[in-house]
UniProtKB/TrEMBL annotation:
Co-factor requirement: pyridoxal 5'-phosphate
Keywords attached to this entry: Carbohydrate metabolism, Glycosyltransferase, Pyridoxal phosphate, Transferase
Catalysis: reaction(s): [(1->4)-alpha-D-glucosyl](n) + phosphate = [(1->4)-alpha-D-glucosyl](n-1) + alpha-D-glucose 1-phosphate
EC number(s) given by UniProt: 2.4.1.1
One of the Pfam families matching this protein, by short name: Phosphorylase
Organism: Thalassotalea psychrophila
Protein name per UniProt: Alpha-1,4 glucan phosphorylase
A GO term for molecular function: 1,4-alpha-oligoglucan phosphorylase activity
Family membership: Belongs to the glycogen phosphorylase family.
InterPro entries attached to this UniProt entry: Glycg_phsphrylas (IPR011833), Glyco_trans_35 (IPR000811), Pyridoxal_P_attach_site (IPR035090)
Function of the protein: Allosteric enzyme that catalyzes the rate-limiting step in glycogen catabolism, the phosphorolytic cleavage of glycogen to produce glucose-1-phosphate, and plays a central role in maintaining cellular and organismal glucose homeostasis. Phosphorylase is an important allosteric enzyme in carbohydrate metabolism. Enzymes from different sources differ in their regulatory mechanisms and in their natural substrates. However, all known phosphorylases share catalytic and structural properties.
Species classification: Bacteria, Pseudomonadati, Pseudomonadota, Gammaproteobacteria, Alteromonadales
Length: 821
């Protein structure tokens, strides 16, 4: 690549540029009082470097006609961008000095930034980590997503209950995005399909749409760490198509023109806040289609700019990864485009799709497996539905019936259409049939995808189902969020561990070194002091940094079992009330979690934790040995503050339910010790750190299956475990909700008469036992320090760079920029 060798910016030059932006870009001369203006000017300064690199990256891939990966995801949880971009461009120190020179602390400037919260949880954050790794490893990649006007709701607590308010992330503009009017797309929907007979007896289908929506792209640059690359995340915003608008406006129908505009703009208005349930809402379906159509059109346009009308290389140059089934319609849209617009024969179009698409499954939970009614499909996308039926016919006749002749049962089970009162389209089935690879996100999860979710597909398409274990970017999740620990690691590891995380394994040899232990734990202690301040500010609760910081941060979900640690907190509280000298190291339970607004029990669990926290935190009898805090508005930025301060990482899902988990990796990387079940990536974390450096408890996947085969009865545990009984009964009293008995009953009800669907009671006793072992380990300072250090040292496998390399080697088959000559 013909890059000019640039001198890195000095702090003085950086400061000069910031001042120029304050003066000439925003006319802010009173910046002394205005950290927001400084933030903006710093971002604009960084962008000067970013956009130059973006131009060079584009230039390179154009010249080399590089194969690209197109990552399609309805969600991206980017968090804040400035600190990350400064680290990745090696401008952090320079910017820090420059900003100090202007009279500000860089951390205070960061605090002015808004999270890009265009996602729910792990799936969206994974996409963000993958973009970071793709750019860092110099791969040609485009992330496609939706430019939601409102990302994930903001969470507040009113008297312990979750209140949602809209996220206004770009109310006053976002310095990290640029609009690309030259890449606008027009998206048809609704209408009907006309069949036209050709002279040769064949037919041609013409879709006459009923409406057109405009898709406007906003590009967010993705800066690689210490690499040549700046890629983009392209986010589509829906607008009323202009001609449609104007016709009505000119005819005097001003009001209607506006309502059409409102309708069009509704499509990208808000992120659906359900993490693992399919709400089945029509607008969500249109949102998915709008996103897929914009992205597929853009991918084709980019390809055509290089290859014109020659489709022969399409599958060599383009791979499309579907982040769960949310973007499945992209398959049908490509198929439709090839046949209807480029005159492909059906089989050729189908074969092309099968070479281009790959699909990642993120959950086995049945309520998350997307289904859309045939009726809705027919109304919004009549032509796509025809193609879906044609794929189903081919699949059932040419593949299912040939593999299992005369087996109607099998045809019914595998069909893309679920028959019943209303016919439903099984989106995951379409993905499996039409993708060349399907992956789960941790080994145990991928094994279960094969054995339990799609066993027939595994037989039908051997080699198609595979695993890529998730990972996290060590740039954001260690280097940027834990600067002190990063410096300590720098002093011991001579290579750039942020780019080669396995190199941290050399730190394991200091695990028993007293001096190193002291340094390591002093950093942890400092991080805990900072978090304690944050906790005081956001909850009013005072906590001691000498206590064990026990952290559970993730979406609120029954399968994740926040209520298991809640039950255990009740048990500890009871033990302390019975015996104020009960032997335990003081512990602070720190929760962070948003509940889907319509998820009743999840919200009840938040309420119960908050109510118990009120009581426990103000009870002098227990001498501060137990504290409980629920930090409001958990998000990427809060995670960056909690994770470096965690001693214990709670990963306690019912075995078989958590596909992977990625918070578990971030916490262990920052020296937290896991207490967890053999679920998701916990299994692989245990393999890496060894049994001595993790607290594994509870039923395994096989144990759970056995329990269920014998008929699971929660009352067996209630009647035979005095502590379980007392804690559940406690919830019916008004002990935590004075004057209002029964306010916390929902949890007890779900665990008993509700059948305890996530087998919490079956794991309770072993969890309590593991906690005693953990408490004992913590009291032995050297032992704990050793465990913490080993956790940090052995997380090499869980860098998202390794995940991306796995995708590249086994699925995408890309070559990085540097190796293309
Ligand atoms: C999500 O965050 C995850 C799975 C989903 O299934 C949906 C959402 Cl929004 C449809 C999570 C998994 O629960 C978690 O185990 C995994 O680590 C993460 O995706 C990334 O793969």
């Amino acid at each position: 690549m013909a890059t000019a060798i640039k001198k890195p910016l000095t702090a003085a030059q950086f400061k000069k540029k910031v001042l120029q932006h304050l003066n000439f870009t925003s006319s802010q001369t009173d910046y002394q009082q205005d950290p927001t203006a400084v933030l903006r000017a710093v971002c604009l300064t960084v962008n000067e470097v970013v956009y130059e690199k973006l131009t060079e990256t584009n230039q390179y891939h154009k010249e080399h006609k590089s194969r690209s990966i197109n990552y399609l995801s309805l969600e991206y949880l980017m968090g804040r961008m400035l600190s990350n971009n400064l680290h990745n461009l090696d401008l952090f120190d320079v910017a820090q000095k420059a900003v100090a020179n202007l009279g500000f602390e860089i951390e205070d400037i960061f605090e002015e930034g808004h999270d890009l919260a265009l996602g729910n949880g792990g799936l969206g954050r994974l996409a963000a980590c993958f973009l970071d790794s793709l750019a860092t490893m110099d791969f040609n990649a485009v992330g496609y997503g939706i430019h939601y006007e409102h990302g994930l709701f903001k969470q507040q607590f009113h008297q312990g209950r979750q209140i949602e308010t809209p996220d206004e992330w770009r109310e006053y503009g976002n310095p990290w995005e640029v609009c690309r009017p030259e890449a606008v797309q027009n998206i048809p929907l609704f209408g009907h399909v006309e069949t036209i007979a050709n002279t040769d007896g064949s037919v041609k289908k013409v879709w006459h749409s009923g409406q057109t929506i405009k898709g406007v792209p906003w590009d967010v640059p993705i800066v690689g760490y210490n690499s040549k690359t700046v890629n983009v995340l392209r986010l589509w915003e829906s607008r009323a198509s202009s001609h449609f608008d104007w016709e009505q406006f000119n005819s005097g129908d001003y009001q209607d023109a506006h309502s059409a505009q409102n309708h069009a703009e509704t499509i990208s208005k808000v992120l659906y806040p359900n993490d693992e349930t399919d709400a089945g809402k029509e607008l969500r379906f249109i949102q998915q289609y709008f996103f897929c159509a914009c992205s597929v059109k853009d991918i084709i346009k980019r390809y055509s700019q290089q290859h014109g009308n020659d489709w022969s290389q399409f599958a060599d140059k383009v791979a499309i990864q579907l982040n769960d089934t949310h973007p499945t319609i992209a398959i049908l849209e490509l198929m439709r485009t090839l046949i209807d617009e480029y005159d492909f024969a059906w089989l050729d179009a189908f074969a092309m799709c099968r070479k281009v698409f790959a699909y990642t499954n993120h959950t086995l939970l049945p309520e998350a497996l997307e289904k859309w009614s045939v009726d809705l499909f027919n109304k919004v996308l009549p032509r796509h539905l025809e193609l879906l039926f044609s794929i189903n016919e081919y699949f059932l006749n040419e593949e299912v019936s040939k593999m299992w002749p005369g087996n109607d049962q099998m045809r019914r089970r595998l069909s893309l259409i679920e028959e019943g009162e209303t016919q439903m389209v099984r989106m995951a089935h379409l993905c499996v049939v039409t993708s060349f690879k399907v992956n789960g996100v941790a080994q145990i999860h991928s094994d279960l995808v094969k054995s339990d979710l799609f066993p027939e597909f595994d037989q039908l398409y051997p080699e198609k189902l595979t695993n890529v274990t998730n990972g996290v970017t060590p740039r954001r999740w260690l280097k940027a969020c834990n600067p002190e620990l990063s410096k300590l690691l720098d002093s011991k590891v001579k290579v750039d561990w942020a780019k080669d995380l396995s190199s941290l394994s050399s730190v394991a040899k200091f695990a028993d070194d007293e001096k190193f232990q002291q340094k390591f734990m002093a950093i942890k202690h400092n991080n805990k002091i900072k978090l304690a301040e944050e906790i005081l500010a956001s909850t009013g609760v005072e906590v001691s940094p000498d206590a064990i910081f026990d952290v559970q941060i993730k979406r609120l979900h029954e399968y994740k079992r926040q209520h298991l640690s809640f039950m255990h907190i009740l048990a500890l509280y009871r033990r302390l009330l019975a015996d104020p000298d009960y032997d335990m190291h003081p512990r602070v339970y720190i929760f962070g979690a948003k509940a889907a607004p319509g998820y009743y029990l999840a919200k009840e669990i938040i309420y119960a934790i908050n109510k118990v926290a009120d009581k426990v935190n103000n009870d002098d009898r227990i001498k501060g040995k137990l504290k409980v805090v629920f930090m409001p508005n958990y998000r990427v930025t809060l995670a960056e503050k909690i994770i470096p301060a965690a001693d214990v990482s709670e990963q306690i899902s019912t075995a078989g339910k958590e596909a992977s988990g990625t918070g578990n990796m971030k916490l262990a990387l920052n020296g937290a010790v896991t207490i967890g079940t053999l679920d998701g990536a916990n299994v692989e974390i245990a393999e890496e750190v060894g049994d001595d450096n993790i607290f594994i408890f509870g039923n395994t996947v096989d144990d759970i299956k056995a329990l269920e085969a014998n008929g699971y009865n929660p009352y067996d545990y209630y009647n035979n475990d005095e502590e379980i009984k007392a804690c559940l009964d406690w919830l019916h009293t008004d002990y935590f909700t004075p004057g209002k008995p029964g306010e916390l009953s929902a949890i007890a009800h779900s665990l008993l008469d509700g059948g305890d669907p996530y087998r919490l009671l079956a794991d309770f006793a072993d969890y309590a036992k593991a906690n005693i072992a953990l408490d004992k380990a913590y009291k032995d300072k050297a032992r704990w320090a050793r465990m913490a250090i080993i956790n940090t040292a052995k997380m090499g496998k869980f860098t998202s760079d390794r995940s991306i390399q796995d995708y590249v080697d086994n699925i995408w088959k890309l070559t990085p920029m540097s190796s293309q000559g």
